[in-house]
Specification:
The structure is a single chain. With 379 residues, this protein is of the alpha/beta class. Helix content is 33%, strand content 27%. The strands form three sheets. Strands 1, 2, 3, 6, 10, 16 and 17 form a seven-stranded mixed beta sheet that branches.
Length: 379
């Protein structure tokens, strides 16, 4: 996701979800905070949010919101609706091959956060438009093909439509393997910026089975493999998560590098890994092979000395991913969006100063979150 803004940096472009998995959290949150400023509607930025997905998807991953993230959702006025919109998950059970329960832990409640943030940004946008402002334009079904910048603007071209647009600022919020970072900072530095942790995940939804309930079930297999099944907010569906820890099989890295273009190869590789684990693997593999909302990626962290370059700045996983197993990705996205919006409002005519303030306020939380990972991969 990319965001650009002019006047208060009036034209802002947010490159939001690089993978074809629907709307992410960071971009809509940033857009909402920029438009909630006390400025007159006519002086608020025109915001464009680019989404690869052809439309908003109902499927999504359960998320954790902690500490500073809870404060941010309160400032957006979303705490009540988020707490009322959980998947209903009762907790987690660690199970064996015959579904006997080794341990059980009750859950913190989680909700449909991406959908709520998207809806909130649209409500704020409509209010701004009624007041004479430009609000937010969502562009679905396209992605970033080219990006160049000069001293005064950033010039982008969309891949599918071929449309060219100019913005005052671009925000790359397109995730761990998003294209904004690679295109602006250079692909030759990606190996140093991406710190692989040896774990790979496949995430998808599938039809609900007889053994699925409102409890998450977590099965550990030999060979450092794991399967997690969770209730979905669509009650006839179940969410599946497959994890593999392997630092030697280069195929895991190769199919991850293909992103959304490598879905079939990614599914086939995970099917190979989980075919012999027992438990409910046959049913799960069948569900994975037939799903349309599959997502595969490496578990990694992004570490950079600076999150901005010229008029382009990174937000969330694109700039400082703490990894999917840190439990802090959503909190970092929410806090980063809030801090970036505040910095841009503090420095409406100086993006360099705004980006410096954003980094100064956000980096301490990022540093702590990335340290939380120690020990997780030894499980």
């Amino acid at each position: 996701m990319s965001t650009l803004c002019s006047q208060l940096h009036s034209e802002v472009f947010i490159c939001n979800a690089e993978a074809d998995v629907g709307c992410s959290i960071a971009g809509p949150t940033l857009a909402a905070f920029l438009l909630l400023s006390p400025l007159p509607a006519s002086e608020k930025p025109r915001i464009t949010i680019l989404e690869r997905s052809s439309g908003f998807r109902m499927q999504g991953q359960n998320v954790d919101i902690r500490g500073a993230g809870v404060t941010v959702i309160r400032k957006l006025g979303l705490e009540t609706v988020i707490r009322a919109s959980t998947t209903g998950e009762e907790g987690v059970k660690i199970v064996g091959e015959q579904n006997h329960v080794w341990a059980a832990f009750e859950a913190d409640r989680r909700g449909r956060l991406a959908e709520i943030c998207y809806e909130r940004s649209n409500l704020v946008s409509e209010e701004v438009k009624r007041g004479g402002g430009a609000g937010i334009e969502y562009v679905f079904g396209d992605y970033l093909e080219e990006i160049e910048q000069d001293g005064s603007q950033v010039h982008v071209r969309f891949a599918k439509s071929g449309e060219r647009r100019n913005f005052d600022l671009v925000v790359g919020a397109d995730g761990l393997q998003g294209q904004t970072r690679s295109k602006v900072w250079g692909p030759e530095g990606e190996q140093a910026r991406i710190k692989r942790l040896g774990m790979y995940i496949g995430f998808f939804s599938m039809p609900k089975g007889e053994t699925d309930s409102m409890w998450r079930r977590w099965f550990h297999a030999s060979g450092r493999r794991g399967i997690m099944l969770r209730p979905d907010k669509q009650r006839d569906r179940t969410t599946g998560l497959l994890t593999v820890i392997n630092e030697k099989d280069t195929r895991l890295v190769e199919v991850a590098a293909k992103g959304y273009k490598g879905v079939e190869a990614q599914k086939k590789l995970l099917a190979e890994y989980f075919r012999d684990v027992g438990w409910e693997s046959e049913r799960i593999i069948k569900g994975m092979m037939g799903t349309e909302d599959f997502y595969y990626d490496m578990v990694a962290q992004i570490k950079m000395n600076s999150w901005s370059k010229g008029r382009v700045v990174l937000l969330g996983d694109a700039g400082y991913c703490a990894s999917t197993i840190s439990g802090m990705g959503t909190t970092l996205a929410l806090s980063g969006a809030y801090n970036l919006a505040g910095a841009l409002l503090h420095h409406p005519n100086d993006h360099t100063a705004a980006f410096a303030e954003y980094e100064e306020t956000t980096r301490p939380l990022v540093n702590r979150a990335q340290k939380l990972l120690l020990g997780h991969l030894t499980l």
